[in-house]
Amino acid sequence: SELFPRSLENNNHKAHIGLLLSFLKLFEHVQFDLNKFSKKHIDYYYNQVLRQEKKKIDSLETFVYAETDPNRDEIFTPKGTVVLAGQYEEGLPFKFQLKNDLRANSLKISFLSTIYASRNKLFDFDSKFSLVTSIYHKIIADNIDEVQQFNTNTASFSALGSEQDFLTKFESNMDKANIGFMISSHVFKLSSSERKIKLILEFLPSSIFLFSDLIVDIVENTKLSELDIFNKIFSKAFDISYTTSEGWHPIKDYVIIPPIDWSSGRIEINMNLSSLDPGFIGFNKKNHQLNINSDYPVIRFNLNQDNFYNAFSFLSVLELSKIEIKVQVSKLKNFKIFAGGQMVDSNSEFNFFGPTPRLGNKLYLCCEELFNKKIEFLKIKWEYSNLPSGFKNLQEYYENYGNDISDTSFKYELTALSDFRYSGNENSQSVFPLFEIDEQNKTSKFSTLELSNLNFLTIKPNYKLRNGEIQRFSNKLETGILRFELKSPSSGFGVDLYPIVSTKLLTEKVLNPKNNDEDKIVQPPYVPKVDHLELNYSTSTTIYFTDKDRRQNNNKVEDKVLSYSPYGIEEIFSKQLFTKNNLFYKFPNEGEFVIGFNSEKSFSEFSILFEIIKSNNASYDFSNDISWYYTSHQGWKSLEKENILFDKTHNLLTTGIISFKAPSDFSSNSGILKKGDYYLKACSKDRADQFGLIKSVRTNAVKIIEIIPSEDVTRKNTIKANSVDGFENRINGITLLKQPFSSRIPGIIESDNDYYLRISHLLRHKNRPVTFWDYENFIIHNFNWISHVRCLQINSQAKKTNVQIMCFKKIEEHQNVEEVMLSIDEMNQIKNYLNKYISPFVKIEFVNAIFEELWIKCKLKFKNVSVGNGIQKFNQDFFEFICSWSFSYNQSTQSIPKRIKKIDIIKFVKEREYIEFVTGISFIHLSRNAENKISVYDSAVMENDHEEYIYIGTNRSVFVPRNAHNLEIIQRNDYHAPEPTDFNELLIGGSFALVSEETKKVTKNRTKKSTNSDSNMNSIFTLDI
């Protein structure tokens, strides 16, 4: 075969061989013409005799968006305005027109993010409640430039988030959301020391009962104690940190204590910090990188979502009544000592009352920490480093002074500088002994001052005073100093008395040498030196949330409680306002998609173009209902239906435009996310990961449609991206009109084979359908958006209908299989057209298919793929295996199977290249019969083993798998027999969903045993619907 073509390229043939080869080459044209004889004949008959022609391509449609002059107000461009997009091959202008009115404005998208609250049922929490496993968040773009960058790259994201629990770190496309609460309080002004902080959260009884129900439910299913379950959930529930000069510092030593009595509603969080941990510092936006308006230190409680039990499900139901903060500080050494107006080094020993301690000498202890909060208990402890050696006590030491001086003679007065003056009264409780005597009547080297009542000091806390603020001593200081003043004895420590007494004793020795006691010596004045001075104190504050107790809050402080989530930081309590009593943002929806806008001008309407591709997670039974919300001064508000002018995306399932009318209270100062931006969010209660993947998002968008010229031109079947030149007539204020992506092909020009088939069918039924075959092909050829038609046999004599017809619409890969169903309008459109051509005695009825679910139950192990991706790929492959008809157009209706071989399903599962080992394969089929009963068939039941096929329940039924397969991941390649499905595994009464809305009302009490079924198979039980 290679020699002959090669010889043709050779120019050295002999003459007669060359003539032969030339003849053979020329004969190819005759041969080709002869082979086309039948085609020419049929073309002549169809085109010339019957005057038929191929179907023409529909008008092209595509999307454009406008960029406007930012200084212009809203620009209105009416429907029908002409747009130019190049030329046809013949040179005529290629024109389009606006399909809708366009109101262009300066609105630009400035923010895109998604949130997904996973309640993965593959986790066995031993709870009947739907517990949150993780909450995920992804910021796609955080400003206008990032949005533009996203629109031009190849990235895409799941519109309302997607499941991440079984994805690896490299496969995951969302992050665990930062969720938690923060408390900013004046009592957190704590320097380095031994600190114990007790946070007592007291909740409303109604909410604590819900909380306890969640725990008791797990207790009943696991047989563990309530304390065990509580510790399992909350032992590592938070990542706690606080503000320091170096940023956020973690608190690793903490414990959460359950209520002793659940009716009390008290949960304690006890935190311990050592002297090695840095001191608290007031919040600083630059240093701590959060947008909080507070000068007080902050403790942050970030929810730890890496635990098996996510504490969010339990804590989110709680409603606060009050928060009590108790602080105990010990071994505090962050203070300054002043004596004689000079600072004394407190890290080494120092003279308590100076080098010459006289009556009235003073020591000043500067500690802002004692004055910027209300102190409930104070303990000052110090150690004397130079007690006289060789003496039992000071009474012995001063025995020869003759003034009857003892240890109890030495007293000091304690006063406090507050409001620019020292307060205290020596006739009250402000005078204290300087020394302590132990049980052996010895002077103790330690001295302690304990005050459980500090009212005598009349300290007015200065809540704005910062730790370390006072750097030097001054008489102009307002507060922050404790003053120790020596009040007795009157001779002080004998500094002035010593020379007198010693001279007198020396004189006596000289004058009366015989009476002189040589051992009698006057000791020099004792100058007390102090080492290791430390402070201990306790303080507390309470924040009330209930209306009846809120007046008890201290309005002089700026304490705040803040809740944070992907929507930003919200003040739920401050001196100025009180918004709610929940510590956590509640995530009522499974998925949320947030769009932020920025606009310098007002606007009344806006349109958004979403470029969407199909999600691989799509399943037929999910509810594609979306609720829209917008930001107002009161926060998120539901967007009324009349504010959605139209939605061509079919709830974010396909590429299209959503046009909105701006609500009157649409606010850019809602306190949500960034100030100055408007926000919309789309929410779905369930199956959020089944929505489309968003490829790009643009404002000022409109759909344009081709204007087909009256002249004969060569039509185009697509228009490539960026082909649009602009408006035919310039529109003032619109600076640019862009086509972001190519048009989708509306319909390929009819092929020769399709043309011949359509005309041959037309000749058969002569545009007058009679048989079922006629009806099916007549509808397919006259409605190019129909893919399959099935005429159903009517057996009932009572029915007035002669023909029952079931149709399926064409869908593209980005669409959900549920969209093959016809709406009432579409049914009426076909019915009205059909009635023009059929016998008036024929009564037709259009029905939609009944989807019958098919599940796989098995134990398996994946290879070379993560569990999450493996499950997703299996769901997709099994759907394509069962529903291959859904994307196959103009095929025989028999391509929709009425039965499936069980061995084919088993073979399909075993042949997956990403499954390393599989065992225990069985399948569950839920079918309906003519009486609208659902039969549940389980191949693992022994009585069903002889069945070779699985059959549909009715002639209207279609097998459609749902992504709820019971796939158990195993680690060892051990054989397991197929296990019958338990009733509870069907999740009836919970999240179990069948074809119709009514099915959701099924409960276990309505289940009955069934010994027979109208279907061709055995069933384990039947549900009456």
Would you spell out the secondary-structure blueprint of this structure?
Layout: H1 3-8, H2 15-35, H3 37-49, E1 61-68, E2 75-77, E3 82-87, E4 93-98, E5 102-104, E6 108-118, E7 134-141, H4 144-152, E8 157-158, E9 175-176, E10 180-184, E11 194-203, H5 205-222, H6 226-234, E12 238-244, E13 247-251, E14 254-257, E15 266-273, H7 285-288, E16 298-303, H8 312-315, E17 320-332, E18 336-339, E19 342-344, E20 350-351, E21 362-366, E22 375-384, H9 394-397, E23 411-418, E24 421-423, E25 431-433, E26 446-451, E27 481-488, H10 497-511, E28 529-544, E29 560-565, E30 568-573, E31 591-598, E32 605-613, E33 627-632, E34 635-638, E35 644-647, E36 656-661, E37 678-684, E38 693-699, E39 701-706, E40 726-727, E41 734-738, H11 752-765, H12 772-782, E42 786-792, E43 803-809, H13 824-835, E44 844-847, E45 850-862, H14 867-882, E46 899-901, H15 902-910, E47 915-928, E48 933-938, E49 949-951, E50 957-959, E51 966-969, E52 1007-1008, E53 1021-1024
Parallel strand pairs: 43-44, 45-50, 45-51
Antiparallel strand pairs: 1-39, 1-41, 2-5, 3-4, 3-40, 4-39, 6-7, 6-31, 7-9, 8-38, 10-16, 10-29, 11-15, 11-17, 12-13, 12-16, 14-15, 17-28, 18-19, 18-21, 20-28, 21-27, 22-26, 22-28, 23-24, 23-25, 23-27, 29-30, 31-37, 32-36, 32-38, 33-34, 33-37, 35-36, 42-43, 45-47, 46-49, 47-48, 48-53, 52-53
